[in-house]
Specification:
Length: 468
Amino acid sequence: MNRPIFDPTRRRFLRQACCAAVGSTGMLSTLAQLRVLGAVAADSPVVRTAALGSDYKALVCLFLSGGNDGTNMIIPSDAGSYAAYAKARSLLAVNQSALLPFTPRKYSDGRSYGFHPSLPGVQRLFGEGKIAVLANVGTLVQPTTLSGYRSGQALPPQLFAHNEQSTQWQSSVPDRPFQTGWGGRLADLMNAFNSNNQVSMSITLAFQNSFQVGNTVGQYSVSPNGVSTLSGSGATVQFANSEARISAVKDLMANSNANLLGAAFAGIHGSAIRDGDVLGGLLPTAPVLRTAFPGSSIGAQLRMVAKLISLSSALNLKRQIFFCQLGGFDTHAAQVGSHGTLLAEMSGAMAAFHDATVEMGVANQVTTFTASDFGRTYTANAEGSDHGWGNHQLIMGGAVQGGDIYGAMPSLALGGPDDTGQGRWLPGTSVDEYSATLATWFGVSAADLPVVLPNIGRFAKPNLGFMA
């Protein structure tokens, strides 16, 4: 006899629960990552609707997955430098007349620069002092010279490999096996600001990531379209018993379990359901923003981040960390067209998001920063480029000391003082220094920086000066 699709047998019931599209990171692959939602199971207090306080702060990580070609994001524009750039980059070179010029307020190395023509939003915000450029930053175990690199000085393992380098960027501890991300450690340290918070302070709009893995505070996943719920929970004829099903799942998750994996699953699943109930009820009350966001994937992610920020007081959150992701930057072929499209999506979404924070009156309290696996080689690889190392990043917000370049631009000379081979630039600034500057703005004291960034003591500049 064929079973109806709403078959309530225990095995089918649990299988559907396990496969449910709940707002969590899903079943994670390691015990370290099973901590991902460990601290989100607190009882939900009464919702408050007070306006955002002046002590609120949010960090938004925009990860450019695949390795953004920073050398084509910021391009030398003076005649001599551009000629050398065009010769080295060959068919990847962006037309000189199309560059969007900008003038740093203080930084000078004798060259002029322009943004890629797909970055008008970035150019505008740089000119307004709301975006800063951090030049040639990358993963480092310790300060490294070109001679040290060539002699086998301690280096991040698996340089130029996507999975290793993206994890190292997000953990900021390249010389140890992955356990937690620096965003997760930051949340663990700063969660005390969030008295009686109703959902995790770490929210991902791009599913599971290493950046937000913490020991006590875990990432909570929200779709750009809203909160996901258990499969089959809709009030349809097909699932007419959905309320009873959800109630039963909650009861199952609340039961004690001596098995480590079972307890972890119950904690993750149960807290995700509770958080989804709270956030799902609040999202419809978010104010409607006048700012128009582009219809791209990253535009939708940042639009939802803006909504969630507007609800932070109702959620009793004074600190929030968000993770968004734009993929497609592994441009080994057809780079000229695809890279321009990706940069246009990034620029439009970033500009709209900043304008939304201005509209909400929280621009000084929200800082957005880019990160990526690595840069790309200066020399072309057919119609694309290969995996590189040092890369340029953007930092955006009202508290950013923008309109300037921080760090030092590489020489852009093949075989020169910054070239480890094929134009893979040796980073002049570490991810640790980049992250420490952001963490300091977020409220971490100098004494506590090593808790978030264990290797920061090896580097000379725990504050790069791009935050007010």
